[in-house]
């Protein structure tokens, strides 16, 4: 059961204390270095400042290579609470920021800032706090942190974290025990700077507000005890006490047990039992930071051992190479078998890998032993199981079992024996008769277990990240699926009718097609009827249907054009050539049949008329070819005939009727013009019987011409029927084909009549114009001889033309009456 506050205070006042188990009494040998005052070293040429000198997180560099720095300038910074900055120990130039070997048992390199001293030792701007009691606690704690103060008793724990009291503190213990042999840094500090240590204690008391402050000093330091007692007599709350000399009485847990009789829990902190502890060097640094504004850039270091000529305590700047301190103490290498420098005391110190290692905040001693001063042979023998190590352990552990399991790398079993409760005091190794470096095995095992824990923590964090990512992706997937389902439901609801019946829903494709058709009909309506609003629904439908029909006809024409054009053009050319040859033959025959007794006018007009007839025949052939091409282009293709036979046939009939009406009108006009021109012809034809004699021949020629025209029409109809084999398969297309063939025959007859009338009219016009021409031309003998024969032939030709024109007129009238019926 822990002792209460009143009992503890009463025992302290009576100078009665508790004790701890185990412990040893090694030879202190403190007289080597505690006889002289603390010396100040000359400024070194180069300082190496490790970025991390405390327990916690290292800060980030604020300077770069080539920067000039002032003494006390901040070199690193970090927002992490378990981090304190480091400062420039002197003014100079940053020459390197690199990894170098530092003061650590592992000898591994760490990041350091290398400063080349300029010799001026110029301070940066300092910000002291004169009346700290008027300041808030948070501002004071922040100033302690910015000063870079960490525990200077050896642990290196950030001081500003310990200064933030979260629990009620009954006892504030100031540790001035310094139980390690050879070390006298705290002893000389208490002797020479007792008042500044007292100022630091007052600042801590202001922050923590303990009930009692206890300054503990071993009874082997009477001068330090008197100095501290003298500066604290005016404050009853501060008690300066002497405790029995026993190693390791200066350990945190051991000293708390000696002064209060309370034991710190195995996994707890001193604050859990109402106790807070600071080193006297830490108190001095706090007073320097608050009252003078100086950061932690130097500390007292003991340089001792029989291998140096001048053992002493010195003020060493943080970052000073060990070699510089050894040169000031006049290191004598010949007194050692091998160069050996131990940082710390003989119990807890470690051998440095190099003398270029810098001084850090937790460096309190450099031990340079002579040949036989310490047993450094490391002559490890087998364990004899004497249990002396267990008797000396101040934490009541079993060092022998921990040694076996640590050496065999059975880390789990070593941890089961509370390996991490070991304070590494070295008492077990000190009493071991086999000279086994037990602490060395414990440190190695602890490092390996920490590595395994770190790997396990990293794996666990990776697993957590993976599971979190997996859960996040699954959640996003579910959200996407829910979103898609929601959108699909919305689309389905939008496509359903208002009544909600399933049968009334339209397919999306059908709806899209309907919209496209409506848009197309709108565009067609807009092009046909710009008025839009004034058009009637029936007219709009008719226009739409007409536009569709035109589009279909155009498409059919484009599809049939390559075949129809090639066939039609070849046939038309052949027909035109035949017609031209027939015309030329007729003209030659008419010229051969002319007699010499014809008149000059008849002689002159016959050749002209035959030439004109040939030219007109060519024109008629060209017109026939153009009409054939037009009819071929207007004829429906096989695909359109299958779908639109009825509408196309009606359209063709309408066009045929229009063409027949036009032909009749032209025939009537030509007949009237012929009637006007016939009297002149009768004046030139006194003999009427010639017409009667030639009428059978004229009738025969007219019948031959009509038969030729009919044959051509039938042949054209047959070719058209062959070019449209698929159209004949449909019943509605057959009547239209028959009507087309009859219409073609009728058109051929009309064309022949028109050609004859035009030929006659041109012959009459030529006869009227030629007499004037004969007045200017001398009559040739041959022409005079042939004039009677030419006149007779001209009369015959005129009679034939009149007969053909009359017959064509009658046929045109008959065809017109049939069309009207």
From TrEMBL:
Say which enzyme class the record assigns.
translocase
Q: What is the lineage of its organism?
A: Bacteria, Pseudomonadati, Pseudomonadota, Gammaproteobacteria, Alteromonadales
Which intervals of the chain are annotated as region Disordered? Answer: 452-821
Q: Where is the composition biased (Basic and acidic residues)?
A: 452-482
Q: Where is the composition biased (Low complexity)?
A: 543-564, 672-681
Subcellular location(s) of the protein = Cell inner membrane
Provenance organism: Alteromonas oceani
User: What's the protein name?
Assistant: Ion-translocating oxidoreductase complex subunit C
Could you give the subunit structure recorded for this chain?
The complex is composed of six subunits: RnfA, RnfB, RnfC, RnfD, RnfE and RnfG.
**Keyword set, alphabetical order:** 4Fe-4S, Cell inner membrane, Cell membrane, Electron transport, Iron, Iron-sulfur, Membrane, Metal-binding, Repeat, Translocase, Transport
Q: EC number(s) on record?
A: 7.-.-.-
